[in-house]
Design a protein that fits this description.
The protein contains 13 helices and 25 strands. It is an alpha+beta fold.
Length: 499
Amino acid sequence: MKQRYDVLIVGLGPVGAVLAGLLAEYGLSVAVVERSTEVYPLPRAAHFDHEIMRIFQRLGIADEVLRHARPAGRYEFRNAKGELLMLARRGDERGISGWAYSYMFNQPGVELALRAKLANMANVSVALGASFVGLRTFAEHVEVEVSTGDGDGGSQLYEARYVVGCDGAWSPVREALGTTLEDYQFDEPWLVVDTIPSDPKQLPTANLQICDPARPTTCVLMGPGRHRWEFMLLPGEDADTVMQPGFVEDLLRQWNVDVTMERRAVYRFHGLIAEDWRSERVIIAGDAAHQMPPFAGQGMCSGIRDAANLAWKLAAVLAGRAAPRLLDTYQAERERSVRDYIELAIEMGRVVCTLDEQRAAQRDAEMIAALKSGSAPAPARAGAPGKTGGAFMADNALSGTILPQFVNGDQRLDDALSGDAWLIDATGGDEPDVLHIASTDPRIAPFQDELRRWLETNSVEAVLVRPDRYIFGTGAPGDLLDHWRAEVVSPVPAVQSAA
């Protein structure tokens, strides 16, 4: 018999797990199929930022995630002589989302925290050792065949109103969509070495990009008790050669550290983006939709932003509060952000990956001079959703920016309110489409002073905030509600949940 769900997610990496958790919090029935039977035991992604931590907070796992993470600290670009070329991130920043600007983390620990969350959600079903085989689309649902992985060639049919492929760079769901990949023509092979140091005091306390034409190198913190090096492969080197233990030991010897190698692998750092992220009821997210070099640390972050953007829109459509056209804004918003990050990462990568000594010397001189003159700011931070075709008030200055999460001690604004859209103004009220609260509401008493200052500084009478905590628009409350209902909430006949 078919198993029926509101949403079927293919892939239980961080993106699929976050999406499943967010959808379940909206009351949807969710199935996740994952071909592996266990969390991959070694780290892959190394960095997430304040916005991702805010999403973990919403899922109620922030404290557990912090056991596997630490604030990222400084991010420096230095040349072969050790001279500072660029400070890409200071070590004392706090992000607008109310957490440290960036964190370095151990991915297996965070994935286990996400899976433990899903295990305690009654409306989430997880099938491990189950591989996507194929799908058929119908007017009101998608039928998906999944191999059971029990060795007898058996399979299971799932029926879902929407299917989301969070199944990685080699995504079978993307292949089923038939969409093409745009290639940014940046393709560099790197050796990644994860280690456990015997004495962390031997290691740099900053995250480093060593722009050395003899061997571009990355040296970064990981989760507590771990450290990563990445070494660019030089012309004539291949994966078999650089993966030899002796080769890696020679590379690490110059750092004068005592470490145990935990993992080594060769990756190709490249920029790719899918042409179409959705075809009717089939959608892709995360690495299935886009891949980027790691220099900006935004690969996993971008995928989790996809999940946060998509979750509330799917929930609204499936509950009958919005028409399916709302899902057209998913790629329209996320693609601009992703392209910004890919282009930023490639720009940073081209600084690092220079192998010509003369060009590197010229680069160093220019960057050092700019740094001394004060004309060398950190690389621009990309990531704001695109307003064109998005679910925002397009002519509104604050639309598409993140509402700050105000913090008072260990209290945070998001914990005081629900996961709905918020309309915040001086009076509050009773509105069916949003949580309409007064800026003096007792629930947000610890944050009222900061909130009032923010409203006054921005000359804002009222602000309407989407469930993903991006600002829909600011202005008069009545006007905001009219725009919200016209552009986002398009009532349609309610459809019974598959739960």
